[in-house]
Amino acid sequence: MRVASTALASAVLVAAAACAQENGPESAAGTEASGEPASEFTMEDVNAAPDSWRKVEADNMLVFDTTKGRILIEMLPPVAPNHAEQFRMIARSGDFDGTNFHRVIDDFMAQGGDIQAAKGRSSGLPNLKGEFMFRRNPSEMTITPIGRKNEATQGLYKGFPIATQSAYLAEMTKDASVDSWIPHCPGVVSTARTNDPNSANSQFFLMRYQAAHLDKQYTAWGRVIDGFEAVRAIKAGEGQNGTPIENPDTLKEAYMVSELPEDERPVAYVQRTDTPVWAEKLQAAAESDTDICDVERVPAVIAE
Questions:
Q1: Helix/strand/coil for 65
Q2: Residue 85 C-beta-side C-alpha neighbours within 13 Å
Q3: Which pLDDT score is estimated for 24?
Q4: pLDDT at position 232, please?
Q5: How far apart are CA 184 and CA 77, in angstroms?
Q6: How far apart are CA 116 and CA 301, in angstroms?
Q7: Is the entire prediction scored with pTM above 0.70?
Q8: Does residue 230 contact residue 68 with C-beta atoms inside 8 Å?
């Protein structure tokens, strides 16, 4: 059941200090990468090779029902546990419903989640400390690497792009771990904030293209597994900064799949990336010096 949140003062825009809302990231020329589209599969493919697919947990799957279509997002809580939990809470509260995509840059990202603008109050939840990087134990959270296993600085984990310190450095640390993060590839979901790195609250942005300059500066916590064409179709703003937008697209409803009755839940299967097939693809990426954001997006199949 959804519950109403209480009021809380909102953050301040970096670009316009007089406007009380979280600021999205700034674009930077020359950083975009289109990313290869995901290959198309069906449930027949999943049923024919079930060991090549994994089922997405319902409590990690967030649905954005927008005026441009449905967008399914998988969260990866280990990389940003506090952000994942806060966005779960806001989706369950209903506070995202009716909010606009108020800042959209065509070759960059689409920003939404401004509860203050839509409802005259904030989320009622505290601001979040930045979770720009996480500690990864390479023996416990193993990526399929681009390049040599112990030296690689990019790879895939459960279909998510991962950037990281080389695994061999873990031998030199007390916690046997290295710094890792989700790079801002096409389809990645990240969090808006002000100049204060610990000011994220409710506003998010969906990456339409790559923006490497955002890495380790904004907290990425999810990936679009279905509906990427809707992300790219969201109406862009007229100005260079993605505003204003006349008749902006709307996030009509947001909810966790786990909220739905079991017989009404969409079920998502993501192609496993800890397989020889993906090892071969990433080895080819290493040989051609291809960035992880330019590797084919990992496919998913949705069963209704």
A1: strand
A2: 10
A3: 78
A4: 98
A5: 16
A6: 35
A7: yes
A8: yes
